[in-house]
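Notebook entry, structure prediction.
Reason for the run: the old model in the group folder had no record of what sequence produced it. Starting over properly, with the input documented here first.
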Amino acid sequence: MDKKRLVTYSLLAHINNTGTLTKGLIEIFVPLAKSALAEMNSEEIYSGKNISEIKKVIKNLYSIDIPIPVLKNILHQIANEVNTPNEVKFTIYKDGAFSIKNYVFDEFESLIDEKKVLIENIERLFHEFCSLNNISKSEYSSIFNFLEINKTTISKYLTEKHKTDKKEDYTLEAQFVSFFRQIPQIYNTIKELYLGSILSSYIEYSTKPIELKVELLLDTNFIISLIDLNTPESTDTCRKLIEIARHNGYRISILNDTIDEIQRLILRRAEHFHESFLTKKVNPEDIYNACDRRGLTKTDLENISDKLPNLLNNEFSITTIPVTTKYSNIARFSKEYRNLQKFRNNNAAALHDATAIYYVREKRGNKKFKAFEKVNCWFVNNAFNNEYDDFSQCKEVFNNQFQPEIIKADVLLNILWLSNPNIGTELNSEEIINVGLPALISSTLNESLPKNAIIRELDDNIQKYAKDKLSDEQIVRVATRIANKQISKVENLNKLADESKEKFVKRLQEEAEKQKKIEEKRIAQFEKIVVDLRKESEKIRKEKANLDAKKSENDRLKDELVQSKAKEIEKENEIRELKRNKFIKKKLSNWRKKSWIELTISLLIAVIGLIILMFKSNWNLSVATDLFISLKGNIIISFLLFFAATIFSAIIIRTLFNKYRNVSNIKAFIELLDIPDDLKEVKPSR
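New structure, fully documented this time:
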C-alpha cells in the first residue's frame, strides 16, 4: 500500500481528534489543501489556470483524490481565512484560475516524519509477528489492507457501482491487531489508520445527508448482540445504532419469525449448556462465551428466551411485525432463497433471510435505488459466526447495479456518521473506532473458524475421551490453536477420536504443548517489543526534544532578526518622516507662495493706481479725492473697481486665508501630494 496514503490516514485522524470541526468533517481536509498551496509557493508556482492543478499537487503529496467541487469549497474557505485588507495571499477567480502569494504552511512537516516512523514500526512488528508464528509473507503491507476493509465495505454502498470483491484471508492480520491492543503506543497508531481510512471515504465517495424516515428491520444476530449475548463491543454497536435511529425518528422493527428463530437458538444453547466447554473458548462471540463472561446459567438463558418479546418491545421500543406469511410464501420459491441456502446452516435460516429481503423490498415500494440516501428500509445484521455469516459477498446481494437490502450494523453507523453532521454530536470518532475495529477483528477471526457442528462434535469427544486426561488450561490452548487456524482440519481430530481414544488424547496434548511453547515465545517476544519500544520512544523523545530546542532557538533568532529589522525600519521611517515633512513643508510653501504673489501683484496695481491719481492731483489729497469720486461716476470705471475689489477680497484674500487657517483644505492638499517612494513609510514584510 502507498505509504503516503497511510501517512494521510494518520494525519486525517490527527486533525479530526485535535480540531473543533465547527463546519463538519470537510474541515479535516483544509490543512491538506493549505499544505499543497505552500508547496506550490515554495516551488515558485504563483498562479494557475485551473484549481485542478492544486488537486494534482494534493494527490501527489497525500495520495488522496479530492473532487473538484469539494476542493473549490475548501479553497474558498482558505481564501477567506488567510486574506486580509492589507494583503491578499490567495485568490480564486471566476474562471477557476488562481494566484498564490507569500503563503507558508509548515504545520505538518515534523508530524509527517513522526507518522512515517510509526507506520514503519507497524510494518516491522507485523514482520516479526509473522516470523513468530512461522509464517512467511511476501508482502507485509497486508496489515494496512486489513485496516481498510471497512472503507472498502462502505464504498460498496456509496459508489455508483455496488461491486463485490474477492474476500481475502486476513486472519493473521486480525490476530496481530488483537495482540497489540495491549500496547497503547502501537494500538493508537492502528486506530488512527483505521479511522483515517474511514474519514477518507467522506471526500472520495458521495456522503449526502439522509433525510428520509428510515425503517431498520433487525436480524437475529443483531438482537443477540443487543441483549448482550455476544461480545461487549458488538452490544455497544447495536445499542448505539438503536439510540441514534430512535433519536432520528427511524422506525425499528423485527419479524415475528425472527423472534421465533432467536428463541429457538437460545433454547438450543440452554439445552446443551453443560455439555459445552470448547465452544466458548474457541469463539469469543458465541452465546456460551457471553454466558461465561456474564455468569449466566442455563435457567437465565431460558428466562431470556421467555421474556424476549416483552424485552424488545418495552426496553428497546422495537415493533414486531406479526404476520409474515405473504413474504415467506414469495421467498419460498425465490432465487434468493436458493442462493441463501448456500450461506446458511439450514433451510429455515435461509428462508427467514429471504422473507426479510422481500419485506424490505415491499417497504421500498419495490423500487431499486443506486443512491444510499434514497433508501428508506434496511435489513440490519451483526453477523457473528459462520452459522450467521455475513453473506454480503453473494452476487445476488450486491448485484453491481443497485443498493442491496442488507447492511451490517457497524457499516451503517459509519455511513450515518459520515453523511449526517448532526450525528457527530451523538457518535464521536472514538466510538466509531471502538465499534468498528473490534468488530473487524472479531468477524475476521470468526470467518476462519470451523463450522459450529464440527466444534460441538470435538467438544463432545473431549468430554467423552479426554476430560480426565487434559486440564482446562490445555483445552484452552487447543481452542486457541483452532481459533488461530493452527489446526487446519478440525474434522480430522474427530475422525481420530473415532479411531483411537489414546491417539486422540495424545494429539490434543501435543497441540496444547505446541501452543504452550508459542505462548512462552510470544511472551518473551512481547517483553522484547515492549523494551524496544521504550528505547525507541526514549530515542524519539530525545530527538523531538532536540528538534524542539533547535526550533525554539531558530524561533528566538528569527524573533531577534524580526525585531532588529523592525528597529532598522523604525529608524529608516524616522529619517524618511523628517525628509517627508521637509518635502511637504516645501510643497506647502510653494503652494502658499502663489497666493502671496497674487496678493503682491494686486497690492502693487492698487499702489500704482493711487500714485497716478495723486500725481494727476498735484499731490493734493482733496483734489485726488474729488478726482476719484468723479471717476467713480463713470460706469465702466466703477464696474472695474468693483470687480477688482471682489477678486481681491473674495478670492485672493480668502484663498490665502484657507491655505493657512483651513485645516481640512491643508490636509486635502497634503493627501493629494505625490510623495516620492524613497520618502514613503517602509512597511515590514510578512
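Summary: Strands lie at 47-48, 90-92, 98-100, 215-218, 251-255, 319-321, 377-381, 406-408.
The old model has been moved to the deprecated folder.
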